[in-house]
Amino acid sequence: MHINPIPERLKQARNKIGISQRELGIRIGTDESSASGRMNHYEKGRHVPDIQTLKKMADELKVPLNYFFCEDAQSAEIAILVAALTAEQKTQLIEALSCSETE
């Protein structure tokens, strides 16, 4: 059985920057009266946000969109670190990893 990683990643990213579910909901444009409930449903896995909503949350939480799809903590951390690299650094990383595959 495959488990949806979005709820766990969402909660981790939100807690890391120290905002409430309600605050996140309001920041991404959810009506104030339903912001907390909607975010709670996402974090509990009762509902899955559409890709546009997920992108708004990623931007607000300062994580790359692919962070939400990482199945383990190490991959999620790598996604954050790679997103912070410059284009040149990403190219160098790809080259370094490609070289290590052929050795």
How would you explain this protein's 3D organization?
By secondary structure, the protein is mostly helical. It has a single domain (6-102), classed as lambda repressor-like DNA-binding domains (434 Repressor (Amino-terminal Domain), Orthogonal Bundle), CATH 1.10.260. Helices cover 65% and strands 0% of the residues. It has six helices and no strands. It has helices at residues 6-17, 21-27, 35-44, 51-61, 73-83, 87-102. The longest helix has 16 residues, at 87-102. It starts with 5 loop residues before the first helix and ends with a helix. The mean pLDDT is 93.
Which stretches are low in confidence, meaning pLDDT under 50 for 5 or more residues running? none
Gyration radius from CA atoms, angstroms:
16 Å
Structure class:
mainly alpha
Counting copies of identical and different chains, the oligomeric state is: single chain
CATH class: Mainly Alpha
Discrete helix count:
6
User: Secondary-structure element order, as H and E?
Assistant: HHHHHH
* Inertia-based shape: elongated
- Structural domain count: 1
The tally of beta strands, per DSSP, is: 0
Q: Provide the CATH architecture.
A: Orthogonal Bundle
- How many strands, which pairing sense, and closed or not: the largest β-sheet? none
Cα end-to-end separation:
35 Å
Q: What are the salient characteristics of this protein?
A:
mainly alpha, 434 Repressor (Amino-terminal Domain), 0% strand, elongated
Describe this structure in a few short sentences:
This protein has helices at residues 6-17, 21-27, 35-44, 51-61, 73-83, 87-102. With 103 residues, it is an all-alpha fold. Helix 2 packs across helix 3.
